[in-house]
Amino acid sequence: MIDLHTHILPGMDDGSPDAACSVEMLRRQKAQGVEAVCGTSHYYRRQNSIEVFCQRRAAALDRLTAALPQGEVLPRVLPAAETAYFSGIGDHPGLERLCIQGTNTLLLEMPFTDWSDLQVEEVSSLVLDRGFRVVLVHPERFCASKGNRRKIQQMEQLPVALQVNAGTLLLWRTRRLGLELLREAPIPLLASDCHNLTTRVPNLQEGRRVVQQKLGGAFLQLLDQNAMRLVEPERPEHP
Ligand SMILES: [Fe+2]
Fold first, then answer.
1. Does an H or E element contain 54, and which?
2. Dist CA 2 CA 115 (whole Å)
3. For 2-230, which CATH superfamily applies?
4. Which of 50, 163, 209, 221 is the most buried (most CB within 10 A)?
5. 5 alpha carbon to ligand 1 midpoint, in Å?
6. For the chain, how far is it from start to end, CA to CA, in angstroms?
7. Could you count the other beta carbons within 10 Å of the beta carbon of residue 197?
8. Separation of 15 CA from ligand 1 center, angstroms?
9. Contact between 112 and 82 (Cβ < 8 Å)
10. Ligand 1 mean position, distance from CA 239 (Å)
11. C-alpha span between 15 and 61 (Å, rounded)
12. Cβ-based neighbour number of residue 200 at 10 Å
């Protein structure tokens, strides 16, 4: 079991504040059967260059690794990013470094405004021209806009993954939409998007229970297979 979307790397963003919290989050993940997590800290173009972000991320992973208790086996942490859409992303160089390490899987957070056709074009260019395996994170959070809901349906014509947050399935107000998006996604995914130990906790297991009840065990297996594929290298490594 893999949790593809977490803010577990310490001191990177509004997620885990320090290594002690990160270790405890990893313990909670392990107790739920998670074997690997992606450290998808927020990447905002206006805050950091990709180079600076990657340096900060490596330092955060070092702090976490140093804090791991000896002899305790905890889930692996794969460096990655939750890349916030920015204008020009379609042909921006260096995005490979924001992918889940060793893959061409790019987690993309769309803007919290009404999306333009041009923005959707840029996403399709990332998929079709540049060959990224794009994961649109928590699409449910953008669906209050009817226009965005329609654009998500347009984007479903592409081989994109839609990653619904486990928490969305735990609230009756949002459960129906979360399940609907999972059902219609070309590549459905579930992840925790956990930030801490209080308000946005590791809760993948609870979300999976809802999937099991409402969509069945075979669908749960499909979610696991999709997640596995996205952390595997897409292209052979060059020597
Ligand atoms: Fe996130």
1. helix 50-67
2. 30
3. Metal-dependent hydrolases (3.20.20.140)
4. 163
5. 6
6. 30
7. 15
8. 9
9. no
10. 34
11. 14
12. 17
Q: Given this model, what pLDDT does residue 238 score?
A: 47
DSSP, res 143: T
Q: At what angle do helices 172-184 and 204-215 cross, to 10 degrees?
A: 70
Q: How many CB atoms lie within 10 A of CB 72?
A: 10
Please give the distance, rounded to the nearest whole angstrom, from the Cα atom of residue 138 to the centre of ligand 1. 8
Residue identified by tokens 């669906």 is 143
Helix (H) or strand (E) holding 31: helix 19-31
Query: Which residues make beta-bridge pairs with 105?
Result: 133
CA angle (202, 135, 223) in 5-degree steps: 60
7 CA → ligand 1 middle, Å: 6
CA distance 211 to 225: 15
DSSP structure class, residue 74: -
Residues 6+ apart with CB under 8 A from 53: 41, 43, 81, 98
* 175's tokens: 């459960």
Tell me, in angstroms, the distance from the centre of ligand 1 to residue 42's CA: 7
Asked whether 201 and 207 are in contact (CB, 8 A), the reply is no
- C-alpha 8/C-alpha 17 separation (Å) is 9
pLDDT in tens, 185-206: 999 999 999 999 999 999 999 9
What's at 42, amino acid-wise? H
Query: What distances in angstroms separate CA 188 from CA 59, 161, 194, 226, 231, one per listed residue?
Result: 32, 6, 18, 7, 15
What is the tens place of the pLDDT at every residue in 139-174? 999 999 999 999 999 999 999 999 999 999 999 999
- Rounded to the nearest angstrom, the gap between the alpha carbon of residue 83 and the centroid of all alpha carbons in its chain is 9
